[in-house]
Amino acid sequence: EHQGRAFTIMRHPIELAESLFHYRKSASWEISYRKKWKHWAFADYAKSDYYMANWMVRQLSGTMPNEDVDETHLEKAKQVLRRKILVGISSQWEETIRQFK
Length: 101
Known about the structure:
Blueprint: E1 6-10, H1 13-26, H2 42-47, H3 55-61, H4 71-84, E2 85-89, H5 93-100
């Protein structure tokens, strides 16, 4: 039985959300551009309905945006990562590359 395996380099979820927020409020050429965010702070975005908490857990556990996320979803997401994905951390770039080799 062939089992595929992938690798990824992840960012801290808050860093990722903040980066996406700043990009979406300035990238007027993108379909995801949000002009009304121009004068928002990240805290405004995080409190708004636009922010999706636990995005990565939702993606890995197959949880829809309108569903609540709990520890069982987190455990499922961690299991997917353990079984299928070699994970590196962007803030630890040198060590990540060393581990990938």
